[in-house]
Amino acid sequence: MKRREFITASAAVAVGLSMLSNESFAKPAGRQQPNILFIICDQLAAHALSCYGGPVRTPNIDRLADEGVRFTQATCVTPFCSPTRASIITGRYPHAHGIVLNCAPKRQEGIHPHDITTEKILSDAGYITHHYGKWHLQGDKLPYYPDMFRPGFEYVQKMQPVFNKVRKRDSSTYMNWYKWPLPVEIEPRFQKAVDALGDRWKGRSLAEFITKMGKLKLPLSQCYDVQIADLTCKKLNALRFGSKPFMITCSFNWPHDPNVVPSPYYEMFDPDEIELPANHAREERFEKDWSREIIRSLGERGMREFLRIYYGMVKLIDDQVGRVLSALEKTAGMDDTVVVFTADHGDMMGGHDMVWKSNHSFYEEVVRVPLIIRYPKKFKPQVSGIATDSTDLMPTLLELTGKSIPPVVQGQSLVPFLTGQKDNSQARQFTFSERLRGQSERPARSPAGYERFVYDSR
Ligand SMILES: [Ca+2]
Which residues fall inside 5 Å of ion ligand 1, going by CB? Predict the structure, then answer.
């Protein structure tokens, strides 16, 4: 999908913006310039984490929550990857920034070098900017991301010798997850549930990601998310004596599929002890979605295996967050840095007898996301119930760094609500999610209730 089809409507505003010089966003003299460490996970449901009352004990993420602001009503602008990620860095909704599908060659263009993003503004104003990990917004030649480490490119290249061995040694058993051939050991009881499927899923494109869930037989050091944490720690260390402020994004791929996790995380949760969600309410219109079909076909055994792996992945991420925070403490200093922890969207995690996010619903489980901001110089530790979504992150970070918020930004800065300058009643009362493929839908959600309406965005 060409982005210009969507961007035309806002062309007049965009032209106005492009007339502003870089200096328009330059830092005011003498204003404090905090660093930013932006940690984002893929498909992490808020209700997995212990600080949100979830089943996985996550002491490192909980520490951020205890020392920062934990948002209880943060939502994503759409429950899948690229559009939400674009909203996070542009402060605009998918219908405005034009990335409405997951980016792929010939299907959906991604971020262009001239697009106004948080990092572009900060880089132009003298910040050092880096992005490590999942990106999913194409835009390979962005000057403000000089050393990306993307799952389908740099990681695959680095892992080629290992992956070549896997292809030979485990030729019939590895999980073929996009360009990653992953050696997996499948638990016998789960294998029985898979065998019972027979040929039912044969030839279907995503079937292997489900039928080969299990223990990943790779050392931790070779896992993508561990390498992302390595790179982040290394860069934090390298910048320790620098005079310029930085923004580093540490973007984990898990707990999104591949649904595999290595030892010791695979063994951390006994699948038979896991408490299954109480909500089994199902709607006929979602019965054919993968999210539902996975559990419909593989039953309780499939759900238990999915959840034990999902929880293990969350635990692994929490440990990586701990490593990154420890590196930050030793280098830039925690209190001079705005630390954000969030996710692009959630996961059904068994609710409505579904897993994953690949469905057409806007259920709470996929729309609500964890959001924590730690910056003790400005924000006292607190729990905030303000209505906030993906578009608010850019204006919030720009205000904290003393930059002007471009007029095309649709989100609101959360800063005045967190410092007490404004009361929550002055904030917007609704957040929005939208899907712009097939029948366009745009449900609005308020912390107090929920309403859905359909609109035609084109
Ligand atoms: Ca995602």
Answer: 42, 81, 344
